[in-house]
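Anyone? Bumping this.
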Amino acid sequence: MPHRLNLRCTDCGIRHRAVCARCDETELAQLEQIKVYRRYEAGQKIAWAGDPMSFVGSVVSGVATLSQTMEDGRIQMVGLLLPSDFIGRPGRDSTIYDVTAASAVTLCCFRRAPFERLLRDTPHVAERLLEMTLDELDAARDWMLVLGRKTARERIASLLASVARREASFDMAPKTHDIRLELPLTREAMSEYLGLTLETVSRQINQLNRDGVIELDGKRRVHIPDLARLDAETGDGSMRA
Amino acid sequence: MPHRLNLRCTDCGIRHRAVCARCDETELAQLEQIKVYRRYEAGQKIAWAGDPMSFVGSVVSGVATLSQTMEDGRIQMVGLLLPSDFIGRPGRDSTIYDVTAASAVTLCCFRRAPFERLLRDTPHVAERLLEMTLDELDAARDWMLVLGRKTARERIASLLASVARREASFDMAPKTHDIRLELPLTREAMSEYLGLTLETVSRQINQLNRDGVIELDGKRRVHIPDLARLDAETGDGSMRA
DNA sequence: CGGCGTTTTGATCCACATCAAGCGGTGTGG
DNA sequence: CCACACCGCTTGATGTGGATCAAAACGCCG
């Protein structure tokens, strides 16, 4: 059972990045009325592919994943949802992907029907949603390059660089040196995202560690001394987050 | 030099599927004023990654592709644009992908600035664009499964099934037997889409042919006696286009 | 301490990449 | 009208990155 809590929109950490980013006071008040927070434990399924979903919403904290499972059990993650990312598709009443909490996750959920009404009536929300969807589409396409053409080492580097950049972007002065981050994913979850096996992920992470590109502190904590050095391992010439 | 021609929107073959699908007479008239047709020969580049693009638009006929190139020459296609698909990103003045005409292509182009004004002012266009973008996002995510987890044979089957379904959807009575289609892609282009080499593509296509899943008529013409049989080769349990 | 989930490490295997010809169709210039 | 080159495709021989199979080590918690 998800646990509930509450918070004013104006105090919300993702206020200026989420689907509500461009809302004015009035619109925010409307959202406030239809929102509910839900909390999920690490590993918990938020929804199964094919399930009806009565809500859409934003990730407030933690990391959720979207994934597909083939009948023989092969799994591919198709989205990594970090704070401010949007979950659910307006106009469709079920997910076509499994949604899972990779770490403890808090969602800000809006009931579908009133949210869709808002979407029709307030251009700010619709505009922002279009923009976010276009960004996700670019991200998905960038990931297609990773899955289609990159080596195992390049894939790991790409994942680390993308998480590092995303985390850094929350600061107002994005660092490029001595970035420290807590990997929100197990080796297995990484392998599902990267289209590899967990053994290969483990080997390549340790190789990058030995090569000094990253410094492991335990299993999950990663220190990136120089982001440019990591970028050089991604195989991309010029960077995009 | 792209060749020009003209056509009334009401007579347009993609009228009810493209970004203009929900437009009324008035809105159509506005679009009519800012549109220009352009024609590209097979193999011609429509735009290079990083190029400024002064227009957005729809594919009217033919097949265009979006692709990324790594500095060492590895290529991954990230989008296959069939008639009615939208090209370009509102709010961004350059492509981040290479856009190429795979066959002879006709585009219906809108100058960026007036189109963006239309987006703000007429909800029908914005709504439809959001919907199309969400569809593309789903398609991109489905393709991530193909690239991350499927075998060479499954990839080929997935491509053929997806093109077959897309072609069939233009008819009002979608067939599931004896589908005939002209592959709009060379073996090399297919390999770029599928994350394989052209040799592997060639071998697997001929294998599917030998196994009776498809029947080749020349190099490009494919006869699919039974779409369900082909689906069974994609590795997916239940189908989505 | 003992059990369980995560991660590492090692040995072997295989699907697909790579390298290398050869083949039909088509266009071009002598 | 033929010689030749070029392009898209096929086919074969060989190599290899990552999968698979197997087991041990490392927390972590009860």
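Late reply, but here is one note on the structure posted above: Residues 151-152, 196-197, 199-200, 203 of chain B lie near DNA strand C (CB under 10 Å from a C1').
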